[in-house]
């Protein structure tokens, strides 16, 4: 387990927001990124189409990482280099394909990605990681995304969680 650097600087922040479109989801990601530092873990929870990758695009933009942030579904993890000196990189993980027959990501597969090493220099965002990735750090930002059945409006609720 990696200890969170920087003490309690930003980790008391929580909130909720309605996200009418993709641009709003990306804007929330940029806003959240302002408080993120190397060593932070972000776990995204939500069904298919809830906006997890759009939120990660916003986080990447807010961090100023290089390269296009897109879904790592088929390659499991994408690494984005820092956009400047002293800025963290981004490791974007999609744990969906790591799921066992019961739908839960397995610890062995997650360990094989060596994410705890990447935490030293990067922000790690894990889609579908709830129930597994939390053990990588002593605290993480949990973002729950939901989409209205009748519209494309999404809702986000986020909080820092100590493990």
Automatic annotation (TrEMBL):
Belongs to the TsaE family. Keywords: ATP-binding, Cytoplasm, Magnesium, Metal-binding, Nucleotide-binding, tRNA processing. This is tRNA threonylcarbamoyladenosine biosynthesis protein TsaE. It comes from Gordonia liuliyuniae. Its main location: cytoplasm. Coiled coil: none annotated. It is found in: Cytoplasm. Residues 1-24 are annotated as: Disordered. Required for the formation of a threonylcarbamoyl group on adenosine at position 37 (t(6)A37) in tRNAs that read codons beginning with adenine. Is involved in the transfer of the threonylcarbamoyl moiety of threonylcarbamoyl-AMP (TC-AMP) to the N6 group of A37, together with TsaD and TsaB. TsaE seems to play an indirect role in the t(6)A biosynthesis pathway, possibly in regulating the core enzymatic function of TsaD. Residues 10-20 have a biased composition (Basic and acidic residues). The keyword Cytoplasm applies. The keyword Magnesium applies.
